[in-house]
Specification:
The protein is an all-alpha fold. The chain has one domain. Helix content is 74%, strand content 0%. The protein contains five helices and no strands. Helix 1 runs antiparallel to helix 2, helix 1 runs parallel beside helix 4 and helix 2 packs antiparallel against helix 4. The chain is flat and about 60 Å long. The termini are far apart. The mean pLDDT is 90.
């Protein structure tokens, strides 16, 4: 499996979970976990989907083990951070260190992604370009 397809699939699962959280908050009229909902949608849906687009545009990177590690690291960090932020906003201050560790996982995932973005262009062969022919 490619990093892009894992990113896209996880992004869809995360947005479904985020939407369910939003619906649950609306039904109960309790918006205490709004920050967790926002974290899940931004980190889980938006960021993962953007990672997937980036990886899909770079086939050599898309199939690399390091890209897959980045996606998994980011996803684990996102799940743990979302749960910890929800717990904190529900009054469980013991979740603070868990949120801190999860934040570091997410940061590590972003640093790894930054490495992919800033490494020399020769290492990022985009693959075959689409061949377009003029219409007659």
């Amino acid at each position: 499996m490619h990093a892009s397809s894992i990113s896209f699939r996880l992004a869809v699962l995360f947005v479904i979970a985020g939407m369910a959280m939003g619906i649950g908050m609306a039904m109960t009229q309790n918006h205490a976990i709004m920050p967790a909902h926002a974290h899940l949608n931004l980190l889980g849906w938006v960021s993962l989907f953007l990672f997937g687009i980036y990886y899909e545009r770079r086939p050599a990177l898309d199939t690399s083990r390091l890209a897959m590690i980045q996606v998994v690291l980011w996803s684990i960090g996102t799940v743990v951070l979302t749960l910890a932020v929800a717990a904190i906003h529900l009054g469980y201050t013991a979740a603070d260190p868990i949120a801190a560790l999860a934040s570091l996982l997410v940061l590590a995932g972003m640093i790894l992604f930054a490495y992919f973005v800033f490494r020399p262009a020769r290492d990022l062969a985009p693959g075959r370009a689409a061949h377009l022919t003029p219409a007659e």
